[in-house]
Amino acid sequence: MIMDQIKNQSIIISIIEDINEIEQLTNSLGYEVFKTYIQNRRKPDVNSYIGQGKVEEIKNFIKNSNEIIDLIVIDGKLKPSQWFNLEKNLNIKVYDRIRLILEIFKQRANKKEAKLQVRLAELQYEKPFVKELIHRTRSGEHPGFMAGGEYQVDDYFEMIKKQIKKIKNNLKKIEIGRKIQRKNRHISGFYLLSLAGYTNAGKSSILNILSNEKIKIEEKLFSTLSTTSRKIENNNIPILITDTVGFIENLPAWMINAFHSTLEEIEVADVVLLIVDASDDFEIFYKKLNVSYNELIEIGVESSILIILNKIDLISDKNLEYKINYLNNNSIFKQRKIIPISVKNKINIKILLDEIYSSLPNIVKFNIKLPNNKKTQSLINWIYNRAYVSEISYGNTIIITIECNVTVRDLIFSKI
């Protein structure tokens, strides 16, 4: 008989009622949520986040439970002293929300750049905690789970500083290479389109449908960490579409900065699609859109932002109309184009493509007249790969109507 696979069990502790997102994050890391504790309070307890009475209650539950609890998840940000006191009292690994996300990132990272970015974020997260461990060990206390046992945490802290410097240098080199690649793409005639939005909004699905690709999609938070670029398969001006890491609420600035080279793909894009899951309840829908939009502004996006309401097949027409009307009357979003779509049912995909092309900057339209010979045919093939040929007529001469960016136009004239 094949035994059922034993799953890791976790306990979630929160001081707010809405724990849906932290449950999803915990499940994404591979832990089942065995029990939740919600302690309504205005602010965390200074010593243990939830107060000593609740700590004792949880400690007794763990002691008397038949289940082995592998992880305690705090739905919030722990100070180093709070983390230390919780692990010491409960004798179980304790992750706060940020560390939980970091652990998910570690699982998802499969490319060199993503691994470096995650490691940088992890080391920056650990710095204040290791300082706490140094203080505790000098006071004769056990260093806790994060340090991995009894060893010189002083040496570990020095290693952290050296690794941070080294990783930043490596990421800088990758960033320089990425800039060169982007420059070459622009010279080749490609516009750059970036997908942005809250994690699990359906960005990868949109990339697939616009590029006719079949990139694997997982219904997990942060399934995309590394950027993925593909060409939009449409007989029009060439566009490269890039999927990027999803946003999430309350990430510290240092963590966002660790992914700077990836997020830069959004900053320099000619057009940004801000994807939001339209099927979420209104409060969650608006929160995710607001978080994502504010991140775009923080990053420094100045190009066109199209707001894409995905998964409209999962909601009623009345619900969708209410959300669109609300955004159209909102001072923040009313200046933005709002496009409702369903990737699953292929609803409004043609409208989305039309809006993308109409939002591209610096498009020029012009005619050229060429001699009708073999050399010209080679040039025409070159033009078709870099521009949109809206009309072509053959006679003693060939007359072509072209739409493209200014760079490609100048290249065409240089070849005539």
Mean pLDDT: 86
Specify the overall morphology.
elongated
Number of helices, counting only DSSP H or I runs of 4 residues or more:
14
Class by SSE composition: alpha/beta
Question: Terminal Cα separation, in Å?
Answer: 75 Å
Q: Give the strand order, joined by hyphens, for the main sheet.
A: 6-7-5-8-9-10
**CATH architecture name of the largest domain:** 3-Layer(aba) Sandwich
- Radius of gyration over all CA atoms, rounded: 26 Å
* Percent range for β-strand residues: 15-25%
The CATH superfamily title of the largest domain: P-loop containing nucleotide triphosphate hydrolases
Major pleated sheet: 6 strands, mixed
- Secondary-structure element pattern, one letter each: EHEHEHEHHHEHEEHHEHEHEHEHEEH
Low-confidence stretches: 145-151
Would you state the CATH class of the largest domain? Alpha Beta
* Fraction of helical residues: 40-55%
Q: Number of folding domains?
A: 4
Number of separate strands? 13
* CATH fold label of the largest domain: Rossmann fold
